[in-house]
Amino acid sequence: MKKIYAIKAAMLALLLGGGYALADEDVKVGFALALSGFIAPYDDGPYKAAQLAIDDINTKGGLLGKKLIAVASDTKSDVDVGAIAATDVIGKGARVIMVTCDFDFGAPAAIVAQSQNVFAFSSCAADPKFGVQGIGPNAYTLATATLTQGSILAEFAYKQANLKTAYLLTDTSGEYMKSLCASFERRFIELAGEAGIVGKDNFHGLNDTSIAGQISRLKASPKQPEAVMFCGAGSAGASFIRQIRATGIDLPLLAGESMDGAYWLGAVPDLSNFYVLAYGSAFGNDPDAKINDFTTRFTAKFGEQPATSHALTGYSVIEAWALAVERAGTFDTDAVRAELDKLKDEPFLAGKTSFTPEAHINLDRPMLVFNIVNGKHEPIGRFSSEVIPELKF
User: Fold this and answer.
1) CATH fold label, 146-278+367-383
2) What letter does residue 388 receive in the DSSP assignment?
3) Rounded distance, CA 159 to CA 153, Å?
4) Is 260 helix (H, G, I), strand (E, B) or coil?
5) How far apart are CA 252 and CA 371, in angstroms?
6) Distance from the Cα of residue 251 to its chain's centroid
7) How far apart are CA 293 and CA 356, in angstroms?
8) Residue 24: pLDDT band with limits 50, 70, 90
9) Looking at residue 158, what DSSP letter applies?
10) CATH classification code of 2-144+289-353
11) pLDDT digits (tens, 9 = 90+) for 108-123
């Protein structure tokens, strides 16, 4: 209820302020992101990468001859501040905004943008509700859907790593984690049968500090799994992984791109046997030279490598919107939306990207699988889901 009131208050403030100002010579790109707080590692890289993409466009003469200008507002990793941040940047004239890399934290800002007929792109909200069905026709995400991520991990585990049974540990504090584990379970059962899932348990990443009970139940499972599918995120996820390893459980762990990056690895020294999905490598060792070149340019501009590969999706937010603007020949929202909804297998930095009027998220895109060995990310290769998931709500 508190979230709903915050969104309504922000929308009222925007309406009383007259909405966004019409662009003159410059076109403003807004960022309503977590630039501080615990979500910041997921938004910092995309924000900086988007700035790099804006620089690239401006260096070539701008977009439709107009210079792009970034305007930002910090949500401080507070879900209730998202709507306020969106109101701020739209009020400053933003014609498109980027919101937080998560459905739960990005949706409030996206709802405000939708109400003003402004585009809201998430760099990497992977829950399928971020789009037409969950927010509205102006909401897009450059993520690969959790439906696909879970399927890729299930197929990799069963066919590439020869892991025939799995145990699920799901963080229920976010839609991404719940959707990821549900998708993995569905596909793994298709491959291994019902007996392939030997157990499952839940924890709450925002409230729990210990998963001792879950670990005890895992160790007491009548049939021990060959792998654990861990659907957690960030620093909290790192704490739980440390607890798992500290009890002597050395089973292969599988994780989605919510555990991408090395910023959390200090909490689990010399971690090994950990398979994690990513959009690409932030470490300069991607199989795709184009991504390594991006990492080099990013590092030169900002003085450090991206915290995660979500930077690739941040760059591609600008790529997607700019390409649609060019094809439409205008910044008009309705005309640009029509072009966005026709994008098909576009070779963006984040990977091939397609949108339709019904699906504003990617369902058919290869992703990179790493094996973390002694604390180092070793890329195995890019894998696609053999079965393209159906978008259901």
Assistant:
1) Rossmann fold (3.40.50)
2) P
3) 10
4) coil
5) 10
6) 26
7) 30
8) low
9) I
10) 3.40.50.2300
11) 999 999 999 999 999 9
